[in-house]
Amino acid sequence: MEENKECCPSCFDDRGLNTQVIPTFSKHVGTCSYCASEEVDLVAPDALRDHFETLLSIYVEDDNGATFAECLKNDWHLFTHPRMDVANASILLVDILDEPEIIRRRFSPKNPSSPNGLDLWASFKEELMNVNRFFPKKKMDEALLGKLLSHFVIDPCEESEEWYRARIQETCSPYPPEQMGAPPKNLASQGRANPAGIPYLYLASEKSTAVSEIRPHTGQLASIASFHLREKLQVVDLRNPRKTASPFLISNPTEIAKLRSEIGFLTKLGAELSKPVQSHNAAIDYLPTQYLCEFIKTQTYEGVLYNSSVGNGVNLALFDTQSAQPINVSSQAVSKVSVELGAVEDIAS
């Protein structure tokens, strides 16, 4: 390793490294030797050796496998910076591990992805929707699911300090703030996260996404409320499990390997929350995600983050409707509603 070369959080773009590991070792800020980010916390690569050796231990050499850099990119979505392609990521790994041959060695996981979670979810979902609604014979491994979810807990203020909710206006005047929250129990219809009669507060990270979620027509007026969240909420982030989970926050290689093997299952659950649903099928199609969100609620988390199916932003479903308060309301006209066509299998899958 060249003398005085230093890396930074932007090289890895990993939540654990960025917030807990690198700040522990970093003594100053400057320009990164690897990704060229400026005014960032800097750390000598070999300071991270123990963490990467632990992560390397969950893989085994395999001539038909992938490079270590490719494994980390594919399994954990590390090295997302534009400068950190496989070649440059490999150079950084050489400096971290002090092992030049790491570039040439190829690996596969010791424990391949487990089909158990995915297979069980598919059969459980089918029974819940079409066979037994309240007493299904198929059982999810709730202990495993609860443990997996603990790796995806964030404070939604990390995503956005301000959140939005929209309603189609019936008059020329916007709704007052007190009418922009969740509906009362007697008016709460089923939603992606909530069963009928159990209101949740649905918010979006962008105004346009909040309006898109109410499916307006061109020319209609929408009241858009800004919300501030209660401090230190803990919600489960299912937008991109491979990105959210950090193997560097786990010290036990067996636990890291287990998380890696089941992360496809969590990715599937996140996709379920974001999948478009036709209104005439909603009562049935929402059942699996309602179950998932109710389970998350039993684990004492306060909501769930998921990608919007109709906008570019992020949706937040809060179980406690008082967890966020409206600050102000504006009225805006819907000037255009766009349509994007996709393959049939993209909707049906």
Descriptive notes:
By secondary structure, the chain is an alpha+beta fold. The protein contains 13 helices and twelve strands. Strands 5-9-10-11-7 form a five-stranded mixed sheet. A three-stranded antiparallel sheet has the order 6-8-12. Helix 4 packs across helix 5. It is globular.
Attribute tags:
349 residues; 13 helices; alpha+beta; 5-stranded mixed β-sheet; 2 domains; 3-stranded antiparallel β-sheet
Q: If helices are DSSP runs of H or I spanning 4 or more residues, what is the number of helices?
A: 13
Q: How many extended strands?
A: 12
- Main sheet record: 5 strands, mixed
| Mean of pLDDT | 92
Radius of gyration: 23 Å
Strand order of the largest sheet: 5-9-10-11-7
Compute the number of structural domains.
2
Provide a quick synopsis of the model.
The protein has 349 residues and is of the alpha+beta class. The chain has 13 helices and 12 strands. A 5-stranded mixed beta sheet has the order 5-9-10-11-7.
